[in-house]
Amino acid sequence: MKIFSAAQLHKADEATTKKHNITQLELMEHAGTQIFNWLHQRMQGAQVPIHIFCGIGNNGGDGLVVGRKLMEAGYNVEMYVANFTDKRSKCFLINYDRVKSSTKKWPKLMMSAEDFPEINPEDILIDALFGIGLNRPPEGWVKKLIQYLNEQKSFKLSIDIPSGLYPDQALEDAEAVIKANHTLTFQSPKLAFFLPETGKFVPYYEVIDIGLDAEYLQKTESIAQLISKQEVQQFYKQREKFSHKGMYGHALIVAGSYGKIGASVLSARAALRSGAGLVTAFVPECGYEVLQASIPEVMVLTDTEDDLITDISYDFEPSVIGVGPGIGTKKETVTALKKLFSETKVPFVIDADALNCIAENESVMKVLPKNSILTPHPGELKRLIGDWTDDYDKLEKTKKFSEEKEVIVLIKGAHSIAVVGKQLYINNTGNPGMATGGSGDVLTGMITGLVAQGYDALLATLFGTYLHGRAGNMVAETKGFEALIASDIIEYIGDAYLDLFAQPEQEPQQQ
Ligand SMILES: NC(=O)C1=CN([C@@H]2O[C@H](COP(=O)(O)OP(=O)(O)OC[C@H]3O[C@@H](n4cnc5c(N)ncnc54)[C@H](OP(=O)(O)O)[C@@H]3O)[C@@H](O)[C@H]2O)[C@@H](O)CC1
Ligand SMILES: [K+]
């Protein structure tokens, strides 16, 4: 799904009204009606008090439409207008009048903190103060209003975006943003929903299709893409009946050091479970028995050193090399990596300590193979590209790094983001239970296993990240977040594949 900027959405709005000969007011009525339908379906006429807080722009206009519709349907509604300026939008004003003529009552005007209403914990709050037209942080009594609403225990529903948040710009005042329980957003999720500093204000959201011009949206290059099941279904390569293991590649996993041999076990097993035809693990001598005993399907090559990797040599042509988990950053390992990168012409998946070795040694950075897939967590990313001021600065710096080095960078996080030049692809699976040791080693193995099978670097990155998160979600369904460990993720890779094309269960037919 495409993620558009505020500017693009405003243009889409214009294109829609022009091309389809509908007015902005009709578009607003349609958008507000959809929010009303969403609420009505869930509330079924319940007389829970609903407080709607409207600004004076079009987001406020949406709030007025919702309020009018709810009142017409007999709900217990109170509407407030935060009159922070007199520059009210045209559609707001028309809807303001419509509220009066339909309900015989004006919304309550709020001019200062004295006008804040009393709210009970079981009441519902609807936030229509600011939408994507916010252009500076809320201040004064408006900021106080946001804080007052945040103090309430009531359920908070934001229209389009939690007020105070920019859709695609860094947050300036985290104290002036509605902490929404749920957000109903128009047409496209906003980039802010997926970034750590701003995503915390959007724990749950749903996209409401308000019918913006499909052709315009299709033609417009979005600022990012959200990768969900619908997208990854297209990536999947079906296996052919007359295929053999040689067709699914031979992955080499270079991982582990004394005390961290588990990392190589996790990566190698994950590469196998993802479908690599053959997997060989290259480990320090001390890892030999552990690997042979724990994964009989994996072949093992060992370094001459007992405790660490010092010289990576092998006697076959790997289709891909996954390198880094648990290897440490000792001088000898750095030298081995430099040699590997300069002498080998195969696709690489580079993770963990291999990334640290690159960041700490300019001579290794210089031989970083083009088209590699790098999978840093934020700490490793910082070592690679330097510090950033905010999430957007982080994305810009990563784009630059990706362009300069011609590599794919997967920034791991709650929503992992694959950066390929200027393009951003946002993963939509995973859960907080996956923040556990070894989870990244599993991902490295999975992406390596997919490249081995012939998926190109970008597809392998996106598909692997999706499956990793989906498998983690399936573990969480039975074990919860806390008990989830990295090995569990591997055990659910098969289920994650099956789930790609699983049909939803049919309700049993009534006799
Ligand atoms: N996309 C679509 O197709 C559709 C979009 N729709 C809806 O429109 C929304 C966007 O509406 P919008 O552009 O009128 O902006 P919105 O956020 O309501 O208000 C901004 C107003 O506040 C002001 N202002 C800004 N910052 C401020 C601050 N800190 N403190 C105080 N004032 C501040 C600013 O005025 P300024 O003072 O800068 O002149 C402006 O007047 C969108 O989110 C969605 O809900 C739907 O109707 C359906 C179709
Ligand atoms: K809002």
From TrEMBL:
Keywords: ATP-binding, Isomerase, Lyase, Metal-binding, Multifunctional enzyme, NAD, NADP, Nucleotide-binding, Potassium. It catalyses: (6R)-NADPHX = (6S)-NADPHX; (6S)-NADHX + ADP = AMP + phosphate + NADH + H(+); (6S)-NADPHX + ADP = AMP + phosphate + NADPH + H(+); (6R)-NADHX = (6S)-NADHX. It comes from the Bacteria. Binds 1 potassium ion per subunit. Residues 9-218 form the YjeF N-terminal domain. Pfam families: Carb_kinase, YjeF_N. SUPFAM superfamilies: Ribokinase-like, YjeF N-terminal domain-like. K(+) binds at residues 59, 127, 163. Its cofactor is K(+); Mg(2+). PROSITE patterns: YJEF_C_2, YJEF_C_3, YJEF_N. Its EC number is 4.2.1.136, 5.1.99.6. AMP binds at residues 412-416, 440. Residues 228-500 form the YjeF C-terminal domain. (6S)-NADPHX binds at residues 58-62, 131-137, 160, 263, 326, 377, 441. Belongs to the NnrE/AIBP family. In the C-terminal section; belongs to the NnrD/CARKD family. Homotetramer. This is Bifunctional NAD(P)H-hydrate repair enzyme. The gene is nnrE.
